[in-house]
Amino acid sequence: MTALLEIEGLETAYGTSQVLFGVGLSIRAGEVATLLGRNGMGKTTTVRSMLGLTRARAGSVRFRGERIEALAPDRIARMGLAVVPEGRQIFPNLSVKENLLAFAARRNGHADPWTLDRVVALFPRLGERAGNMGNQLSGGEQQMLAIGRALMTNPYLLVLDEATEGLAPLIREEIWRCLDHLRAQGQTILVIDKYVKRLVRLADRHTIIERGKVVWQGGSDQLAADPSLWHRYIGV
Q1: What is the spatial order of strands in the sheet that 17-28 belongs to?
Q2: What's the CATH fold of domain 1-78+197-236?
Q3: pLDDT along the chain (236 residues), means of 10
Q4: For the chain, what is the radius of gyration of the CA atoms?
Q5: Of the candidates 55, 106, 160, 234, which lies 20 to 30 Å from 228 by C-alpha distance?
Q6: Domain spans of the chain, in order of start
Q7: pLDDT of the residue at 204
Q8: How far apart are the C-alpha atoms of 126 and 145, rounded to whole Å?
Q9: What's the CA gap between 187 and 156, in Å, rounded?
Q10: Are 107 and 154 in contact (CB under 8 A)?
């Protein structure tokens, strides 16, 4: 099966400081994949390079069969690649409803698209807070809004950077339940997070990077069977 996203030999730098050294990963349609590693090892830079926010020096990024590493971020987004960024970055002076409707699109062309009603059904708390401004929400509610906003674009690929970072345990569990639901519906997802015990239950395949290089790739059964990988590269 052709990969929906295919990254090969990705090298990225900030000025003279190189961060990524030949990173590669692939995700097929309908898969859930992860990108794992300790803080500062290049996970977010990989995402930024995918999105055109940081230009790659070498390598290729193919999305839906097209080279995208040299495209503008807005063009990449319109192709159906949506990200829930670290830090959420919702609009603080728009209401919950306005934040969601501002991103409404039909990028994947599915017959049953994500709508305001469907997002509120997934996260009832957003319905209760529909008239609240973004800066009036708790951290957990902001994360729900960031996920809902990305879903409103109806993406082919949903990327979550530090999906549950800093959230209270109950809210974190709600986010995991949401991701389980999206997986069951066939949404292709790339997750960056540190909770390996949950990720091996959620994801199909995993890529671990250390100092900007891929050091391990494999399936959930392999990762679950070798906790030494967690301690060596993820710090669990």
Answers
A1: 17-28, 3-14, 56-63, 66-67
A2: Rossmann fold (3.40.50)
A3: 91 93 96 94 93 93 94 94 85 92 86 91 93 91 93 95 85 92 95 92 95 96 91 80
A4: 17
A5: 160
A6: 1-78+197-236
A7: 95
A8: 7
A9: 7
A10: yes
